[in-house]
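>> Question from a student workshop board

For tomorrow's exercise we were told to take the sequence and the ligand below, predict the bound structure, and bring the output to class. My setup keeps failing. Could a helper post the expected result so I can at least see what it should look like? The ligand is S-adenosylmethionine.
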Amino acid sequence: ITVNDVMEETTPIINKKTSIKQASKTMMKNNSTHLPVITQNGKIAGIITAWDIAKAVSEDLKELEDVMTNNVVTANPNESIRSVINKIKKHNISALPVVDKKQKVIGTISSDVISQLITKDT
Ligand code: SAM
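>> Workshop helper replied:
Here is what the output should look like for this input. Compare the format with yours to find the bug.
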């Protein structure tokens, strides 16, 4: 079993030039707390989460680029679930965008999905 087997394929994505307000709206609309951020040419540029929006409000930051995380930890479709769990633990995160060889976002893998897997197997 690899990332490809369990990832969510319908991932909402936002552009780097999006406003923080629009990013928040996209989160609410899609019931999602993690949004991969992409460049104009469609490659992954970072990630913004509900935590970052809280930070923007508390520190009065206005630009998406000031609050998103640029150093995004990603997964690839052929990666093992074990490897994803290691990344989640190491970086204290709960979701990873899944990217193809061209760095295009093709899905998301989250700790929620991984927890569901465990309950299914036992
Ligand atoms: N340490 C805090 C805590 O325990 O509440 C924050 C948790 S987590 C480290 C929050 C940060 O992780 C956010 O700034 C978010 O952008 C970042 N983050 C979430 N998913 C990420 C990922 N896949 N790669 C890199 N950073 C990520």
